[in-house]
Amino acid sequence: MTKRVTLADLADQTGLNISTVSRALSRPDRVSNETRRLVEKVASQLGYETNVAARNLSRGTTDTILVLASSFSGQAISPIFTGILLGVCEEAKALGLNVMLRQYLAQPISASDVIRYLQAGVADSVLLVATEQWLPAADRGPDQEMLPIVSIFNDLTTAGLTSVMTQEGDGYVAIVDHLVERGHRHFAFVSGPAGSGHEHTRYNAVKNRLSTLGLGKKLIRLEGGPFDMASGTKAAQAFLALKKRPTAVICCSDGLALGFMHTILGSGLRVPEDVAIAGYDGMDYTAFTSPALTTVIQPTLEIGRVAVQVLADIHNGRITTPRLVALAPTFVVRQST
Amino acid sequence: MTKRVTLADLADQTGLNISTVSRALSRPDRVSNETRRLVEKVASQLGYETNVAARNLSRGTTDTILVLASSFSGQAISPIFTGILLGVCEEAKALGLNVMLRQYLAQPISASDVIRYLQAGVADSVLLVATEQWLPAADRGPDQEMLPIVSIFNDLTTAGLTSVMTQEGDGYVAIVDHLVERGHRHFAFVSGPAGSGHEHTRYNAVKNRLSTLGLGKKLIRLEGGPFDMASGTKAAQAFLALKKRPTAVICCSDGLALGFMHTILGSGLRVPEDVAIAGYDGMDYTAFTSPALTTVIQPTLEIGRVAVQVLADIHNGRITTPRLVALAPTFVVRQST
DNA sequence: CTGTTAGCGCATTCAA
DNA sequence: TTGAATGCGCTAACAG
Fold first, then answer.
1. What is the spatial distance, in angstroms and rounded to an integer, between the CA atom of A30 and the C1' atom of C5?
2. Per the domain annotation, does A59 fall within a domain?
3. Which residue's alpha carbon is at the shortest distance from the C1' of D1?
4. How many domains does chain A have?
5. Is there a single domain that holds both residue A234 and residue A310?
6. pTM of the predicted model, to two decimals?
7. Can you give the CATH number for the domain in which B24 is found?
8. Residue in chain B lying closest to A119 (CA)
9. How do residues B47-105 score in pLDDT, each as one tens digit?
10. How buried is residue B290: exposed, middle or buried, by Cβ count under 10 Å (0-12/13-18/19+)?
11. Burial class of residue B182 in the structure, from the number of CB atoms within 10 Å of its CB (0-12 exposed, 13-18 middle, 19+ buried)
12. Which nucleotides of D are covered by protein (CB under 7 A)?
């Protein structure tokens, strides 16, 4: 890497002052056309690249977003994570921002951790992905200054964080309506991890919709556990042991649905003839299982993009108060129902 | 975020000099126990966090790894990417390094791009994930200084880059042997994207193994395309149109295998009775499809970890010449064969 | 529109 | 072991 080319070198070469060169590069409009062109020419000639550490130190900002992924290893979020991350990266690139990634496995993330990062100048803003637990900073008084932090996938508005996620209720309402229309009257809900906010929201959506339709008592709940496939098989075994089995099974995730269906099919039952199964998330594979899974597609890419936009809005003061941004999911009917 | 606490503040509070405070924090052993303890106490009291921009500028390093993901959106690498990224993050955390992420969709990455990042001080080293094309810097003479760049998943040693990947041949040899042992004598290989290095390597591994077993002429090739499921269905249609169909199908990825199997099952053929199908990659879902897919599991997490270790080794001069690090995959037999 | 002057916060010489 | 001084490379006031 030969040696480092600095503004001073460009100043020497062009005969201009360092500050002029700096301006020509960062604020081309505040400089004469002539010097701008000269500087640009010499800069590319010498292969000048502005040193980010120096820029950051001088400006006091970093132009980077820190992504804190909670259960990024757990099967829970992992498959969805890719889409979100892609959206985040794309939007960040569009806005000229960097993306820094850090994982927090199974540990709760506390506000003070995040504030520490912010303070250290690691990043200007933080994206919390799939963070169930958020411990607000105890020592922060009511100084209403809003932190540049956005939660993805979990509604943390009550903790003062703007959140971006899918309108989950809508998806489950669509599933219920579809199954009822297909003639189903007995339902099972395969639950996600106990205590999960998603779990809670989703189960309630199903429950409430069924109640509205006068079928509130026709729903049982099967314990799944984590959002993964193995938990789905466990729930399926419980299902098979039932004396009177529901005809329609609504799962808290595609992973659960796949594991569930695998076991059901293995037992000799037919899907959807004997049991209709619906998933949730919209994983790629759902369209290619046999039978293909009915599911609800989450707009992961869009969620990632929007989260970054929201962060930018907070950063430049266009958003000053916590809010919930909920995007619409897409319901797709396939062979499993 | 109240205001920024700096070394100067600690110096004031402790009555020590800034440089002493700095030393106490970064080189505790070069300072008396007394001052060390004093500084630590006051630092935590005031909530001091060292400013990374300043440290980076002063030291001339960044302690961060830049991850450049190539086709990270394409279905190709995406599912595997999660595992790798997790491994990278874990190891990076263990070594006290940051991870910065950037995507390069469908664009070839050139050495000069990477060198630019390095020069700008965005990162100290670079991890290329799934980079098929690598254009060496034309202007770099034979200055044998090795760049802190590692390629993951693609063997770029010929271009002078140390590479970390799976020993792909082994996996396909295992598949072939298994199928032959099961009595199969006619094979099809569902290919990945044309021109892909993986595609080439994998097909050859199959071809060569069959030749060794005297079955070299019993292999046909079905064009798949990208590593995704849709391409698998396309290949399956071609397969179904064949007059004389092979009894065993070896796919270039799990996605292809899933799409292929979906279509095959939909046509009324049975798996594995009529057609045996094997995938490659070890995606989670393969264990829960019906029938479950025989496949080869890539040690993605391990690959990520090792790549970071290798980067560290290059960085501190323990590795000075390009090499290929190939990890062993795991073959798993399931219902589809 | 351009040059001068000061820092940004820290690490690291060199003396003491 | 500690203190004083210098510089990392760039940006941003402030004059001119």
1. 19
2. no
3. B31
4. 3
5. no
6. 0.94
7. 1.10.260
8. B49
9. 999 999 999 999 999 999 999 998 644 444 567 888 899 999 999 999 999 999 998 87
10. buried
11. middle
12. 1-5, 7-13
